[in-house]
């Protein structure tokens, strides 16, 4: 598994990097088959250290967790515990989907844009144009999944929504977490 361990405006030593690799490897190997890469970012928020970890699995799923603590090692341990809980909770579902899927998930590239918020402008002034101002442009990956896999991916990642290509008809669909706690599914092909 490839690791990318970094700190935002803080120095992380070799001992912490080794601890992160060993601990995260033990957690991920225990509950998930064939992890591909992991990104761990440490930062400081006030008096607390923040640790954010994201693990990509060969099945196309992404698990992420975040922990805060007054010590950097404790922040990582909280993150690792959350990651282990997520992977343990979805172990059976991950294995079931892994057995059904013989090929890796097909991924389609799509452009992503970040638009300037309307709060950045004077609210009383009329905009000169209705075209939004593009702040950044990036590439994103849209996976080809079943609806069940998409819901599982959204829950594992802790994301409020997931855009995916439905395997049945190859059209773009969206699953999202509703305010009432249920999951919504938008399928324009129906």
TrEMBL record:
Coiled-coil region(s): 73-100
Every Sigma 54 modulation/S30EA ribosomal protein C-terminal domain range: 131-184
Pfam families: Ribosom_S30AE_C, Ribosomal_S30AE
Location relative to the cell: Cytoplasm
Record function comment: Required for dimerization of active 70S ribosomes into 100S ribosomes in stationary phase; 100S ribosomes are translationally inactive and sometimes present during exponential growth.
Family designation: Belongs to the HPF/YfiA ribosome-associated protein family. Long HPF subfamily.
Official protein name in the record: Ribosome hibernation promoting factor
Species the sequence originates in: [Roseibacterium] beibuensis
Gene: raiA
């Amino acid at each position: 598994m490839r690791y990318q361990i970094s700190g935002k405006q803080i120095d992380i030593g070799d001992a912490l990097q080794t601890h992160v690799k060993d601990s995260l490897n033990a957690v991920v190997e225990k509950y998930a088959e064939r992890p591909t890469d992991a990104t761990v970012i440490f930062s400081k928020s006030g008096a607390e250290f923040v640790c954010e970890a994201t693990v990509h699995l060969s099945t196309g799923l992404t698990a992420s967790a975040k922990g805060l603590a007054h010590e950097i090692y404790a922040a990582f341990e909280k993150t690792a515990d959350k990651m282990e809980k997520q992977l343990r909770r979805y172990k059976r579902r991950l294995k079931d989907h892994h057995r059904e899927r013989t090929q890796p998930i097909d991924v389609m590239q799509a452009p992503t844009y970040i638009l300037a918020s309307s709060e950045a402008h004077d609210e009383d002034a009329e905009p000169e144009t209705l075209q939004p101002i593009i702040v950044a442009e990036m590439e994103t990956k849209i996976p080809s999944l079943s609806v069940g896999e998409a819901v599982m991916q959204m829950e594992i990642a802790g994301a409020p929504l997931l855009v995916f290509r439905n395997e049945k008809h190859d059209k773009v669909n969206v699953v999202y977490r509703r305010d009432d706690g249920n999951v919504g599914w938008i399928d324009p092909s129906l």
